[in-house]
Amino acid sequence: MELISSWLAPFMKRRLSLFGLIVLISVIFAALLAPFITPYDPLAMDPIGRLQTPNWQHWFGTDHFGRDTLSRVLYGARLALLIGTGVVGFAMATGVPIGVLSVLFPRIGNVLMRMVDLMMAFPALLLALGLIVILGQGVTNAILAIGVVYLTTTARITYSVALRLKAETFVEAGRSMGAGTWWLATRHIIPNLVSPLLVQASFVFAFAQLGAASLDFLGLGAPPDIPSWGNMLAESRRYITRAPWLLFFPGAMIVLTAFSLNLVGDALRDRLDPRFRDELANKGKP
Amino acid sequence: MLYNILTSYAMRRTGAAAVTMAAASVIIFAFIHLIPGDPTYVILGDGATPEQAEALRIKMGLDKPIFVQYVTWALNVIQGDLGNSLFFQAPVLEIIADGAETSLLLAGLTMIWVILIGIPIGMLAATRQGTTVDQTASGLAMFFASVPTFWVGLYLILIFAAWLGWLPSSGYPSIFEEGGLTNLRYLLLPSLALAAPNAALILRLTRASMLDVARQDYVRTARAKGIRPWQVTTRHIFRNALLAVVAAFGFTLAGLISEAVVTETVFALPGIGRLVVQSILRRDYPVIQGVILIIVMLYLVINLCVDLINRYLDPRVELE
Q: Which end of chain A has less neighbouring CB within 10 Å, N or C?
């Protein structure tokens, strides 16, 4: 209980952060409960009821196939959540070991971190696009492509935080008492990485939303039959003057989700040990 | 003495950039080979005859060891030969050069917005730390950092092109054609859309950097000496805070190159960004490879310049 309240404290102090947390929880609920709370089938077409303005039957209006925008937006939350967790999961599962190993074994580390630096020589979206060309389109490949981009930043941050930890007195004390590398890594370094990485994860989650939306918008992300927010924007683009509300809802969802994640990340960072704040100040973005 | 340190730093920094470029070129070379399928068909397209494929195989030296292939390719690249586009049947370098004017002007205009919006408002927020002005500016900055550029772009088109009719919604005729510099109005909305998240980033950075410098001892000394507050802000704090901001220009500009892919698609601008997207959809792999090469090169040169400028501004800067 004390642990939970200590994590909630930064949210209680700032109302904007609390707003972010609430939006985020709502998006997660929307994603999980989509089949039960959507008023219509997100794929059901209605040629007669095309491009309806928001009304009592269709709160968010209907698109050019007469599909209910509210239902599609709610289902879009599923893909947003899938992409976010997928990218964060991939970036953490690859970036953290690379960062930790590089600190523990400086010889391998030199090579590994040089390779990470090399990957950072490719601008983010361009790297993702290049990977999409090699891997092909699709949701999984979009996750992989964006995941590789954030692998680099995650590895960099893990490396710099772990390097600081390695120089701390308690790690030195552990070593002088005869602790092995494995013991130091699992008992001293990795537990202390959790908070900074949680902050990093919320920023990566936010950037993954924007990256995936960009890929979808370019027609290189999720297949067009999947109701994702980026796909919805790409489709409604042609009806921009006739049905401007179609642009509003999916876009607003992307913004709300990414904005909330940034707010939550900021609040968590303020809770963080001040020594690590510099590491996370501006390195979330490649 | 200073001159010596400076040049030796410049030499080492340039050397490091050259090594990175060489290593990156290996990855970019490998790109064509990583695409599933026979590289000759990848390059010629699926419609190629076996004879054409065989001819290209010999021309590219695909029968030779991969190392020899790389060296041949790299030597061609150094001489400006990036291969031929499958779609246009023309040298890749020419096609990229055609899009350069649009992309460079777009990046330039965007940087002007980023500097004009980000730095002054960031300064204002820092000097009024904790006030409503600061909270509004910081909140808006975080909001715009979370907005997809294409969404901003679509709304700018809707408001300023479709509803008000003040500005064109798409395309860009060269400034060397009819209309001259007035053609820049075509880039006004795209540059604003692209500037939004980047100005937000620079705003946050300027603010954070100003607050950081304001805590330094020499600022307290300046205040204690009785220098006017605005002079302390402009001469002591801002000048030093600018170092971190200039350093950020590098990755901002690089981010621009990347995000321009989306912006150029929204506004149908004939730039390098839209060329990439179209080439991916056309499976025009040599063009994709060429663009990646040029952009990575540009990115490294920009970062090199930024580092050298920073070293000139602050000689304490050392190589990582």
A: N
- Residues A41-67 have a mean pLDDT of 72
State pLDDT tens for residues B193-210: 999 888 998 898 888 888
| Pairwise CB contact (< 8 Å): A259 & B146 | yes
pLDDT at A86: 94
Closest chain A C-alpha to B231 CA, distance in angstroms: 28
Which residue from A121, A122, A254 is facing B148, i.e. has the nearest CB? A254
Closest alpha carbon to A124 in B21, B285, B115, B295? B295
Mutate to test the interface with A, among B154, B204, B285, B287 (most CBs of A within 10 A): B154
Are residues A274 and A27 in contact, defined by beta-carbon separation less than 8 angstroms?
no
Are A245 and A61 a contacting pair, CB within 8 Å?
yes
**Min Cα separation B213/chain A (Å):** 14
Phi, psi of A68, deg, nearest 5: -75, 120
Classify residue A7 as exposed, middle or buried by CB count within 10 Å of its CB (0-12, 13-18, 19+): middle
Partner-chain contact B150 A233, CB within 8 Å: yes
Q: Looking only at Cα atoms, what is the longest distance across chain A? A: 77
The fold of A10-34+86-277 is: MetI-like fold (1.10.3720)
Residue A167, C-beta contacts closer than 8 angstroms, at least 6 positions apart: none
A-B contacts (CB, under 8 Å): 122
User: Can you give the residue ranges of every domain in chain A?
Assistant: 10-34+86-277
The answer to whether B183 and B173 have CB atoms below 8 angstroms apart is: yes
Distance from CA of B200 to the nearest CA of A (A): 12
Q: From the list B34, B146, B254, which residue is nearest A258 (CB)? A: B146
Q: Does the structure show a pLDDT above 70 at B129?
A: yes
Residue B5: band (very low, low, confident or very high) from pLDDT cuts 50, 70, 90: low
* pLDDT of res. B302: 85
Look up the ipTM and state it: 0.83
Whether B146 sits inside 8 A of A214 (CB atoms) is: no
CA A120/CA A148 separation, integer angstroms = 10
Supply the DSSP symbol for B236. I
> pLDDT tens digits for B157-168?
888 887 887 877
Q: What percent of chain A is predicted at pLDDT more than 70? A: 88
User: What's the sign of the alpha-carbon dihedral B52, B55, B59, B60?
Assistant: positive
Percent of chain A with pLDDT over 90: 13
Nearest-CB residue to A251 (from B24, B151, B296): B151
Chain A positions touching B280 (Cβ under 8 A) are 129, 132-133, 220
Tell me the pLDDT tens digit for each residue of A10-48.
676 677 788 888 888 888 888 787 777 777 777 777 777
In this structure, the dihedral spanned by the alpha carbons of residues A193, A196, A200 and A202, taken in order and rounded to 10 degrees, is 110
* pLDDT for the residue A7: 66
Window 81-140 of B: residues touching A by CB (8 A cutoff) are: 139
Considering only the beta carbons, identify the residue of A118, A134, A258 that sits closest to B20.
A118
